[in-house]
């Protein structure tokens, strides 16, 4: 018997070599289990509290509620409420398009402003903690009872309704900080289009709301900026990179995951705010017909969900995730 035949016979007798299975879970699996543990209260609340409400709301949108002899009667009407909202109601679709158009302009302004302030507040300067607290104060003031007080602000109502002012101006210009004429005069020699001028005017006139709704995003950006290793900036400085190049080559890619998070958060926060004209239209329709307003809310929910998916898909294509292995 040759040596090759002996080796083959020994391999057959011994059988295939079995790999040892490691029973120790990897770090990623342990982190995943810890993540499920932390979101477990939310999942329990979602299943026990929110899911029945969602199912009841969806069912109500396909029904018509009437009261007969003191008894609440629900009748299945199919898509009648959705047809009423989208095809027969002359104001809902118009309000929906106007609200979406306004928020498409506001959301980039909120993200840009919060990122700009986060970069400034991340610099080493005296009183940095105080400045951070000052910029986060509007977030606290815009919640709870402070929001109710602000909504009843007489001065704010007067500025929004200049016809009630004793000056007798009778125009909405009194409630604006700047006008398109001012911006056009400023950009007269820059060949700026009218679309950009209108956008700048709208952003400046809504600066109060933009500052109020930028606090959470600013904190998220700050957390992302502070997670960047100073050694990376030191190496860029040694290589002679300017601050502008460092921002676009290092800072911006490193905080791109935070941009995605803030983008999704801002879309949801803006579309569900009480100041949103679509939300106010749905609330006003609730007094007339609960089923119709529920159908309007579901249409609005699907549109918001679609916009969130689009924003997440576009932003995720440019997100840079730092590998730590």
Protein described:
This protein has about 325 residues and is mostly helical. The chain has a domain at about 85-140 and about 215-315: MetI-like (MetI-like fold). It has helices at about 5-15, 25-60, 80-90, 90-120, 130-140, 145-150, 155-160, 180-185, 195-205, 205-210, 215-225, 230-240, 245-255, 255-270, 275-290, 290-315, and strands spanning about 65-70, 70-75. A two-stranded antiparallel sheet has the order 1-2. A hairpin with a 2-residue loop joins strand 1 (about 65-70) and strand 2. The protein is globular and about 80 Å long. It starts with a helix and ends in a 9-residue tail after the last helix. The model is unreliable at about 165-175 (pLDDT under 50).
Walk me through the topology.
Elements: H1 3-14, H2 27-60, E1 63-68, E2 71-76, H3 80-88, H4 92-121, H5 128-141, H6 144-151, H7 154-160, H8 180-186, H9 194-205, H10 207-212, H11 215-226, H12 230-238, H13 243-254, H14 256-271, H15 277-288, H16 290-316
Antiparallel strand pairs: 1-2
